[in-house]
């Protein structure tokens, strides 16, 4: 038997239901010979996701990035869009691909989301929209963001890549804004291998989105817009239907892992655990900690120690989007404009969390963190 210390622990793994449960879906796809282009499973998954998430209009995509790009196209966003630098780079790349200038605003030190107090000072005559992110499935301050948008006549598109199933005050977080974009990538709570979706407010907008993701076709011979190929295929959709059947189990397993981490680290000086408000339904998508200066080792020291023990913690999000070459020359990208985001990006560390994480492997993660705290405190 192998030494458990040598076992590699990834930061996340996709939830994979038993293979024998997937076999009937594959056999049915082979029998129908309809593998893409709005097939039966695609249509069924759209409806079941609407029911599960508590939304009315949802369009499936082959991945979340194409969803973001298409959402901006569907709303005809141009000019400047205020967004967060503390996100996965696809958030700003979607703007870049549409010829839109990202304007970075700082984040809240509590929620780690776009700080409403920093938005208004950045609005110019060229500003057309806001693109906030529900980071780590923690809802943005949607009420204040939408009040600002209403005052200045701005659109709001939420990057909800992390926020599958999240509700605030018993209302789906996806029902805020003009649109919300989900990711169903293999690293997410709910996955279709690759995949994503746009949630919108009305049937007319959904039709436009569905046209855009299918090259702009509305029928066999009519193209009404310069669309893209963003369609989800039947194998992805079938896998999503199977995933939905296991979501209660997945959420319970993630909640258990989250609780064990919180119990282990609650008295560790210098480690700050990210808190999500009590009025929010959690999906336990990530377990980020902030390694503050009071901790006896730096974030990168702890990261390297975890890696040396075959534990794939991730500095997520680091660097900031604003620090990448294609964005760092923007006036809004300077660290002086983003002091909170800059500090958080140098402190954050996401620990492994996924349904199949064994207690023994989680214990290794916990022991490595506690050992680092104890050993470095003794040395200082």
Number of β-strand runs: 13
Mind telling me the CATH superfamily name of the largest domain? Type I PLP-dependent aspartate aminotransferase-like (Major domain)
Tally of individual helices: 11
CATH fold-type name of the largest domain? Aspartate Aminotransferase, domain 2
In spatial order, strands of the major sheet run 1-9-8-5-4-2-3
The topology string of helices and strands comes to HHEHEHEEHEEEEEHHHEEEHHEH
Global structural class: alpha/beta
Gyration radius, in Å: 21 Å
Overall geometric form: globular
End-to-end Cα distance: 38 Å
Protein name: dTDP-4-amino-4,6-dideoxy-D-glucose transaminase
Family: Belongs to the DegT/DnrJ/EryC1 family.
InterPro entries: DegT/StrS_aminotransferase (IPR000653), PyrdxlP-dep_Trfase (IPR015424), PyrdxlP-dep_Trfase_major (IPR015421)
Organism: Paraburkholderia gardini
Please outline what is shown here.
With 380 residues, this protein is an alpha/beta fold.
Helices and strands, with pairings:
Elements: H1 19-32, H2 40-53, E1 57-61, H3 64-74, E2 80-83, H4 90-97, E3 101-104, E4 127-131, H5 142-152, E5 155-159, E6 167-168, E7 171-172, E8 179-183, E9 196-200, H6 203-212, H7 234-244, H8 247-265, E10 271-273, E11 280-281, E12 287-291, H9 299-308, H10 339-345, E13 348-351, H11 359-379
Helix pairs in contact: 1-7, 2-7, 3-4, 3-6, 8-11
């Amino acid at each position: 038997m192998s030494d458990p210390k040598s076992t590699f622990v990834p930061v996340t793994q996709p939830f994979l239901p038993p293979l024998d449960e997937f076999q009937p879906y594959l056999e049915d796809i082979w029998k129908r010979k309809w593998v893409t282009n709005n097939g039966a499973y695609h249509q069924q998954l759209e409806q079941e996701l609407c029911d599960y998430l508590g939304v009315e209009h949802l369009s499936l995509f082959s991945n979340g990035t194409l969803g973001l790009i298409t959402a901006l196209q569907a709303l005809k966003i141009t000019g400047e869009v205020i967004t967060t630098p503390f996100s996965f780079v696809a958030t700003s790349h979607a703007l870049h691909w549409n010829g839109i200038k990202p304007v970075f605003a700082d984040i809240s030190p509590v929620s780690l989301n776009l700080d409403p107090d920093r938005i208004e000072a950045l609005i110019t005559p060229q500003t057309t929209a806001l693109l906030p992110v529900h980071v780590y499935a923690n809802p943005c301050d949607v009420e204040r963001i939408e009040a600002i948008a209403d005052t200045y006549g701005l659109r709001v598109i939420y990057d909800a890549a992390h926020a599958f199933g999240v509700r605030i005050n018993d209302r789906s977080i996806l029902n805020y804004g003009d649109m919300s974009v989900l990711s169903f990538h293999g690293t997410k709570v709910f996955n279709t291998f690759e995949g994503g979706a746009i949630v919108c407010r009305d049937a007319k907008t959904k039709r436009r989105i569905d046209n855009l993701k299918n090259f702009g076709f509305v029928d066999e011979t009519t193209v009404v817009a310069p669309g893209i190929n963003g369609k989800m295929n039947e194998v992805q959709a079938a896998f999503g239907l199977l995933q939905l059947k296991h979501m209660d189990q997945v959420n319970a397993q993630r909640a258990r892992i989250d609780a064990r981490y919180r119990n282990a680290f609650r008295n560790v000086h210098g480690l700050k655990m990210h808190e999500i408000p009590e009025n929010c339904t959690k999906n336990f998508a990530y377990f980020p900690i902030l390694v503050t200066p009071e901790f006896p080792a730096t974030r990168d020291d702890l990261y390297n120690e975890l890696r040396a023990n075959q534990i794939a913690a991730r500095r997520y999000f680091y660097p900031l989007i604003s620090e990448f070459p294609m964005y760092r020359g923007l006036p809004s990208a300077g660290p002086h404009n983003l002091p909170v985001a800059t500090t958080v990006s140098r402190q954050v560390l996401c620990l492994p969390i996924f349904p199949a994480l064994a207690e023994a492997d989680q214990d290794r993660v916990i022991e490595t963190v506690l050992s680092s705290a104890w050993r470095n405190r003794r040395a200082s």
